[in-house]
Amino acid sequence: MTHDLVTDLRPLLTAEAAAEAPAAGTEAGDLEQAVWLRLLERLDADGPPRDPGQWLRRAVRAEARRSRRTRRLERPYAIEPVDGGGDPEQLALAAARGRALRAAVRRLPGRCPRLMEALLAPEDLTYREIAGELGISQGSLGPERSRCLGCLRRLLAPEVAAR
Question: Does the reported pTM lie above 0.85?
Answer without folding.
Answer: no
